[in-house]
Amino acid sequence: MRALLLVAHGSRRAASNEEVRALTRRLAARAGERFGHVACAFLELADPSIPEGIQACIDAGADQVIVLPYFLSAGRHVIEDIPAEVRVKQEEHPQVQIRIAPYLGAAGGIEALLLDAAGEE
After folding, report:
1. DSSP tag of 49
2. What CA–CA distance (Å, rounded) separates 68 from 118?
3. pLDDT single digits (tens) 87-112
4. Quick one: DSSP state of residue 112?
5. CA 7 and chain centroid, separation
6. Does domain 2-119 have CATH number 3.40.30.10?
7. Catalytic: which of 9, 37, 77, 93?
8. Domain boundaries, the chain
């Protein structure tokens, strides 16, 4: 079973973290059969952590976890921190394929999405 783990930075502001959780629920509703489990995790300042999120996916029965960084640019968190967290879990669970998808800012179609958002009133 494939799982999708949306990874955000995390915030001291609880409402911001809840926005990510709400987005995750919407993703789960739209995922259909593409992902058997959809969850979110946070790099810092909120729970669950990335390792906890990956473990929850595995505990739900995932043999493949796609980690999707919900970040707009390839800063230190995307280039170093998230891969380091994923590497630890991959070493713990070599039988599970854990892959990091392109971060949001590098995703195809982001330009159209931004133009659509700018055009909304």
Report:
1. B
2. 24
3. 999 999 999 999 999 999 999 899 99
4. H
5. 3
6. no
7. 9
8. 2-119
Q: What's the pLDDT tens digit per position in 4-54?
A: 999 999 999 999 999 999 999 999 999 989 999 999 999 999 999 999 999
Q: Which residues of 88-104 are buried (b: 16+ CB within 10 A; e: fewer)?
A: ebbeebeebebebeebb
SS3 label, residue 31: helix
Q: Is there a cis peptide before residue 51, judged by omega within 30 degrees of 0?
A: no
Question: Amino acid identity of 47?
Answer: D
Other residues' Cβ atoms within 10 Å of the Cβ of residue 86: 20
Residue 53 region by backbone torsions, left for phi larger than 0, else alpha for psi between -120 and 50, else beta? alpha
| Cα–chain center distance at 105 | 13
- Element housing 25 (H / E): helix 14-31
Angle subtended at Cα 60 by Cα 59 and Cα 66, rounded to the nearest 5 degrees: 95
Active site residue 93: no
